[in-house]
Amino acid sequence: MSAVPLYLGLDSSTQGLAAVVIEIAPGQRRIVLETSLAFDEALPHYGTRHGVQRQADPNVATASPLMWAEALDVMMNRLADGSVDLRNLATVSGSAQQHGSVYLNGRATRALETLDPSVPLADQIRGTLSRDEAPIWMDSTTAAECAEITAAVGGSAVLAERTGSRAFERFTGPQIRKFFKQAPASYAATDRIHLVSSFLASLLAGRHAPVDHADASGMNLMELSTRRWWPAALEATSPGLAAKLPPIVASWTEAGTLSRYWQVRYGCPPAKVIVWSGDNPCSVIGTGLVREGGLAVSLGTSDTVFGPMREPRVDSSGTGHVFGAPTGDYMGLTCFQNGSLARERVRDACGLTWPEFSRALEATDPGNRGRILLPWFEPEITPPVLVPGVHRYGLPAGDGPGHVRAVIEAQQMAMALHSRWMAVEVDAIHATGGAAANRQILQVMADVFGADVYQLEVANAAALGAALRAAHADMNVDGRAAAWEDVVSGFAEPAAASRQRPDAKRHAIYRALMPVYAACEAHALGRGPDPGPLIERFRRDGI
Ligand code: ADP
Ligand code: XUL
Question: pTM score > 0.90 for this model?
Answer without folding.
Answer: yes
